[in-house]
Amino acid sequence: MQxxxxxxxxNTRTAxxxxxxxxFLTYLAIxxxxxxxxWLIVGASGLRLVCYFWFTGKSSQSLNFKTKYYITLALIxxxxxxxxxxxxxxxxxxxxxxxxxxIAIICGMSGGAILTLSPSLLAFACxxxxxxxxxxxxxxxxxxxxxxxxxxxxxxxxIALHIVARRIAxxxxxxLQSHRRLEVTAQELAQHKNRLEILVEARTKELKDSxxxxxxxxxxxxxxxxxLDSTGIVKYISPVITLILGRRPEDLxxxxxxELVYQEDLAMVQELFPKVISGDLQSTNYRLLDSxxxxxxxxxxxxxxxxxxxxxxxxxxxxxxNKEKQTESEKKKLLHRFYENQKLExxxxxxxxxxxxxxxxxxxxxxxxxxIAENLEPxxxxxxxxxAIEEHVRSATSLTAQLLGTARGGKYDPRxxxxxxxxxxxATLFKRTRKEIQIHANMSQSPIVAExxxxxxxxVLLNIFVNAWQAMPGGGELRLESSIVPLDDSYLAPYHVLPxxxxxxxxxxxxxxxxxxxxxRVFDPFFTTKAKCHGTGLGMASAxxxxxxxxxxxxxxxxxxxxxxxxxxxPVSDKDPFHQSQVESMIEKGSETILLVDDQELILEVGQAxxxxxxxxxxxxxxxxxxxxxxxNKGQEVDLVLLDMIMPGxxxxxxxxxxxxxxxxxxxxxxxxxxxxxQATQILNRGCNGFLQKPFNLSELSQKIRRILDEKDLPxx
Length: 717
Hints:
about 725 residues, alpha/beta, Beta-Lactamase, Rossmann fold, 5-stranded antiparallel β-sheet, 5-stranded mixed β-sheet
């Protein structure tokens, strides 16, 4: 505690200077109706500065270090409270941009506090908790989910900071202890030197005492002292080697040093040995074999032993650095995991962007094909080609669906669904096309209901079935099982989902299985073990993204030659399952006025042609700003709005909110080729009437519009 107090006082001026600088910059960057928060921070910092000068002056010599320590903790806590109050006051009047700046300031200052407060973990906690938690709580209670997520990230950030601070505090403590041991050792060496000078003068008696002190010194210090002859034979090594390698000194004496060196480092050590004998002094890191035969990192510093002008061996110090190397290895692993996460995020963003643009192109092709088909007679030979084009569009849509799953873009139409029924129907359909696969189902007797997007879960099931089929090229068995399992925090910690009751669906094949490396990468985008023409590497990545976006998770277990099991876990719902009625592929026309909103000229042209073909009057708006302008001028004429979600400037979400302010009752259908971070679901939850996934055909468009317009005209009550 005394050393912690000294370090905290030593860092006081730096901490206060940084505190006031950040407060002044925050005052300039974030406008506020009053500056009470600024004076609160200045006052807390000034009080701490006054106490610092008092503690370092002569007048405080009567105070012991414990009193200084706890007063310093109280002042640091006061500073943290001042910042916490300031963050709440600024947050209450800040815009979104200023809010994110405020979050960055609080996070950056909390991270920077590690430099001045981490010698004491308690001091760090006294500052960071009152500084960060008020803003985190404000974010968690915000209406915008983006700020709620920022609040969760703040909690993770606090935990991470305290883990880092704890490690730094422990490292500081270890360094201080090591420093004290070195000081003690240095003092002992100095005393020993003085004794040696006296003992040399006293000749024989003093020399004998000197040798005894030297022996004790070599045995008590933390590093091992060793001596080799000119050929590399161990002539002497101190007993400390037992603490380092678990080997007794007498077992090592007379052994050639090469027998102790780890094989991978042997060539390097053999090359350095003659250089050290010749006088090339340097410290070297390498691995020795411990008593169990495992490699152990050490550092040696040696110098030659010279007699009559000739080197006859070398003498040196051996230091244990195994923990230091392990720490470096852990840091490398963490960095590798960080870069892998960044790579996956980048791939997901790329996949979503590609799917968005590709679906817009498919929308143009699908729309043109639907228009041509409507103008052809049933007996026309060209109708077969149009149907083939539409089939190709559906195939391409399947590929973009996998890209959207990889990007984790959202669940658009979640309904309470009986998973038993969904799995059995999907398996039955798959079995018809792959008769060499025997499917055995052992599903629970009662329905298992979860709120899912049926189309997306069907895509997950298909990906798993195809993966199993490809793992059994000569045929085999696929077993399906379902159950409801309660899962607690300890089990769910690695998957970042909430505890509760989960539906567990298991798929076990008798295929070739996977090794450990393949299992670790099976959910990576674009990873595949198939030939180039037999797989895109998106199937299991898409499945992982879809299940994750449904607040569930998917696991895999496998062994080469013994098959593979995929387990899907989805939160159970207490609602009754939704039964979807079969809708015929028919065209339903109308005569109302529709506002079509999109930023792509291609979509506007095709969409207008499709809607006019259905009999509707179409008002075209290129972008959200123009849509709001049309609603201000012609809103009374508009019966329905068909709104694209991803647009530059005013996107679909902002446009929807503006339209609802002007005309709360007008129906809105959302349409998109890609939903970023579940934005489609957010807009639907705010009262949007429906969703159309691009590309859609004329039948889907006509039925969706007609259903929503007819619901609008139904009497209420």
